Amino acid sequence: MHLHKNCNTFQVHTTFCSNATHTSKYTALTFVPINLFEQFRRLANIYFLITLILTAVLPDSPIDPSSWLLSLAFVIAVTMIKQGYEDYLRHKSDE
């Protein structure tokens, strides 16, 4: 803070931090880890993952593990694309 005498009145010059807000959730480095963490907090994705592990581990599984892997990968990929696009729009609106 600096005080300056100007015509018998004191003026205070201060510097303030930026008052900008950021509504985006991710950066380029944190998108994949945070997004995967958020997706595997959903019960449906945990169910698919556990079923995938069980079908891969059990010797005579009646279901092919690749079908579970493809369905889980598809759901995660579509959700990641959707959330990435939404966050991109948030980045644009923050500017």
Q: How would you explain this protein's 3D organization?
A:
The chain is mainly alpha-helical. 57% of the residues lie in helices and 11% in strands. The chain has helices at 31-39, 43-57, 65-94, and strands spanning 2-6, 9-13. The chain has a two-stranded antiparallel sheet with strand order 1-2. The chain starts with a strand and ends with a helix.
Q: Based on the structure, what is the oligomeric state of the protein chains?
A: single chain
Low-pLDDT stretches: none
Strand percentage: 5-15%
Question: Residue share in helices?
Answer: 55-70%
* Number of discrete domains: 1
Q: What is the residue-mean pLDDT, rounded to a whole number?
A: 83
Order of helices and strands: EEHHH
User: Taking Cα atoms only, what radius of gyration do you get, to the nearest Å?
Assistant: 25 Å
Record the strand order, biggest sheet: 1-2
From the spread of the alpha carbons, the general shape counts as: elongated
Work out the number of β strands: 2
The N- to C-terminal Cα distance equals: 29 Å
Structural class: mainly alpha
